[in-house]
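Module 6 notes. Inverse folding takes a fixed backbone as the condition and produces residue identities as the prediction. Think of it as a translation problem where the source language is geometry and the target language is the twenty amino acids. Below is one complete input and output pair. Work through it position by position during the lab.
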């Protein structure tokens, strides 16, 4: 009986340490499915955010950096897309990063968003308006 109890205790400790390590598993660079952009996810205090650190075509037809021209806020349309923080304010809870937002510079729209890492190591991004059931998901691959 004590052997089973000891084994259960060891399993519980190992499980807790795995969960503790998972919190920062999201950190690093991720490539979107089209291969057109990389986002670096970082930690700010106890929240997680991400910014565009690479874009396949960073410049417009005139050779100037692409700007956030679709932003609904006219004051923000002159900021460059490169370096833009598109993932904001995710909290880690129950093995997922939740209650954040994702901004799409191609449309100028911001969506509620949840993130999780799938068994294959890809980052699952779920953007939605209102409830998570009505939305869109995509998988990003980690950049080595």
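Target side of the pair, the amino acids:
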């Amino acid at each position: 009986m004590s052997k089973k109890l000891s084994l259960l205790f060891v399993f519980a400790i190992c499980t807790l340490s795995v969960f503790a390590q998972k919190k920062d598993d999201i950190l690093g660079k991720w490539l979107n499915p089209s291969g057109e952009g990389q986002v670096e996810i970082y930690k700010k205090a106890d929240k997680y955010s991400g910014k565009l650190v690479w874009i396949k075509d960073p410049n417009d037809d005139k050779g100037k950096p692409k700007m956030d021209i679709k932003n609904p806020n006219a004051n923000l349309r002159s900021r460059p897309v490169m370096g833009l923080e598109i993932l904001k304010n995710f909290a880690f809870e129950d093995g997922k990063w939740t209650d954040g937002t994702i901004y799409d510079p191609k449309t100028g729209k911001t969506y509620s968003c949840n993130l999780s890492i799938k068994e294959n190591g890809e980052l699952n991004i779920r953007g939605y308006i209102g409830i998570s059931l009505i939305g869109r998901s995509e998988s990003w691959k980690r950049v080595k």
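Reference fact for the lab report: Helices lie at 2-22.
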